[in-house]
Specification:
By secondary structure, the chain is mainly alpha-helical. The protein has nine helices and two strands, in the order H-H-H-E-E-H-H-H-H-H-H. A two-stranded antiparallel ribbon has the order 1-2. It comes from Paracoccus nototheniae.
């Protein structure tokens, strides 16, 4: 019989500062859509899967509750929250501004090798899609958007954007529910990379927002009014 939470993103933790490591792993899993809205996170089973005691795991979970990345009810049950439509729309609007500004900045200042790294992430994403490995593709999509903030040299924007991805990441588990996304020609990620290489801030901004508005349109069907 398979134990709960035995899947690819959980790894046994064997180092010091167990709570911090558990928090980092849980946070990354949320960002990459490896948990779905409504998923329960019972303390003892997930602690066992991580190979740590309940105390550091509880600390990690409650830290994410404080950050509103997880919910806790009156009985102490912790779960992945369902976003409302208004919350998702607001997150997308803020992302469009911050990530769009990062795309502008990258077009003005990013080093060529940094843009190469961004392009490789999208190439890996495309290969994962072609192979039907949608879980990996979702993780690479997250990595692409965070890498954009990194190569733009905007650490504060990176921090804020990563927090937004923790909030909306679980919805990405539905990104490929209908199969592959629309066959844009070219894909908005390609448009972003091309605009950055060309030093065109406005085109980079527009391509980034095209990606958010078009690529995530189907996710609105999975939120609560």
């Amino acid at each position: 019989m398979t134990e709960p939470f035995e899947n690819g993103w959980i790894k046994p933790i064997q180092r010091q500062n167990l709570s911090e490591l558990a928090y980092t792993n849980l946070r990354r899993a949320l960002m990459e859509g490896r948990m779905k809205p409504g998923d329960d996170l019972p303390l003892r089973p997930i602690s066992k899967s991580f190979g740590i005691s309940a105390t550091p795991m509880r600390e990690a979970l409650l830290r994410l509750v404080t950050e509103r990345a997880l919910d806790i009810d009156g009985k102490g049950r912790i779960s992945v929250p369902h976003l409302t439509r208004a919350t998702l729309v607001e997150i997308r609007t803020v992302r469009g501004f911050l990530e769009g500004n990062a795309a502008r900045q990258a077009a003005q200042s990013a080093a060529p090798e940094a843009v190469d790294a961004l392009e490789r992430l999208h190439d890996d994403l495309a290969r994962a899609q072609d192979a039907g490995d949608f879980e990996r593709a979702i993780g690479l999509n997250t990595a692409f958007h965070l890498k954009l903030c990194e190569i733009a040299g905007l650490p504060v924007s990176y921090e804020v954007v990563s927090n937004l991805w923790v909030r909306c990441g679980p919805l990405l588990s539905h990104l490929y529910d209908g199969g592959l996304p629309p066959n844009w020609d070219p894909h908005p990620h390609v448009r972003i990379v091309t605009a950055i290489r060309a030093g065109d801030p406005d085109a980079a901004y527009d391509a980034l927002n095209m990606d958010i508005d078009g690529g995530g349109a189907g996710l609105l069907a999975h939120v609560r009014d």
